[in-house]
Every structure is written in C-alpha cells, then in structure tokens.
Amino acid sequence: xxxxxxxxxxxxxxxxxxxxxxxxxxxxxxxxxxxxxxxxxxxxxxxxxxxxxxxxxxxxxxxxxxxxxxxxxxxxx
Length: 77
Description:
Elements: H1 2-8, E1 14-19, E2 25-31, E3 40-43, H2 67-76
Antiparallel strand pairs: 1-2, 1-3
C-alpha cells in the first residue's frame, strides 16, 4: 500500500539560486531538478531580497551523501 501511495506523490519542489563568480545572486528558481549549468546552488528557500546581493552562506542546502558514500563511512566506523 505504501508503494502505491508513493507513486501518487509528486516530487517536492526544490529551490535554486544562480550565483556568479563573485558570489552575487543573479536569479532564483523553483523546480524539481537542478537547472542546467554549473552556477546553480540549492538553497533552503527563495527570497527576492537576495537578488543582486551576496548569497548568505546559511542559505545553502548541504548536499546529501550518496548511499555508497554513506555505506563506506559506516564500514569504516
């Protein structure tokens, strides 16, 4: 039953900020997958006040470890 329910759920919307080489936020986007290009950073929320300003370090989402990396860490423990 849980598997059937998970098929009906839509993927959650994620938030991204386009950051230039100086750390200035140039665009904000909400989508289900990371946008094309290497300058997009996942953030916990999209605030229009960040535009044309340095992106706060606390806004960035920590990347989740892949299952393989997590297993290796557990094996080393």
